[in-house]
Each structure stands twice: as C-alpha cells, then as structure tokens.
Design goal:
It is a single chain. The protein has helices at 20-27, 30-34, and strands at residues 2-5, 8-11, 38-41, 44-46, 61-65. It has a single domain, classed as Ubiquitin-like (UB roll), CATH 3.10.20.30. The chain is an alpha+beta fold and 71 residues long. Strand 1 (2-5) and strand 2 form a beta hairpin.
Length: 71
C-alpha cells in the first residue's frame, strides 16, 4: 500500500499494522519521535491518543508538522 507523508511517497507493505503510529516510523527517526509535532491525516488533525486506532489507507496523505521557533 502506498501513502504520502509530507508529500513523499512511502510503501507501507513492511509494516505489521498500518495505523498512523506505524506509518510515522517510516518518516521520523527516534529523536524526531521524541519531539513535539502535530499530524494531519488527509487534512484533518489527529490527536496523539488516536495514532494507534486510526488506520491509514491506500493513497492517504499524512502531514507531520513541527513547531518553528524564532522571532
């Protein structure tokens, strides 16, 4: 199954489950997973408690957003 994460295509066939948390392991390294970030699935923001229960489907798009600091 192919999905898009921040516009990049990813093949999720190697994942045991295909929920948001599993899909994020394709995109984020361990250090990034410890940082605060927000996730939108097909344009709708998803709360962190729901990452395990919401499945991703063929062609879905995940957007991962990190806070930007500056002045």
């Amino acid at each position: 199954m192919n999905i898009f994460i921040n516009g990049q295509p990813f093949d999720t066939c190697d994942l045991p489950e295909q929920n948001i948390r599993q899909a994020l392991t394709l995109f984020l390294d361990e250090e990034q997973q410890k940082q605060p970030f927000a996730v939108a699935l097909n344009g709708d923001f998803v709360g962190k408690p729901d990452y395990d229960s919401i499945q991703v489907n063929q062609g879905d798009s995940l957007d991962v957003l990190f806070p930007i600091q500056g002045g």
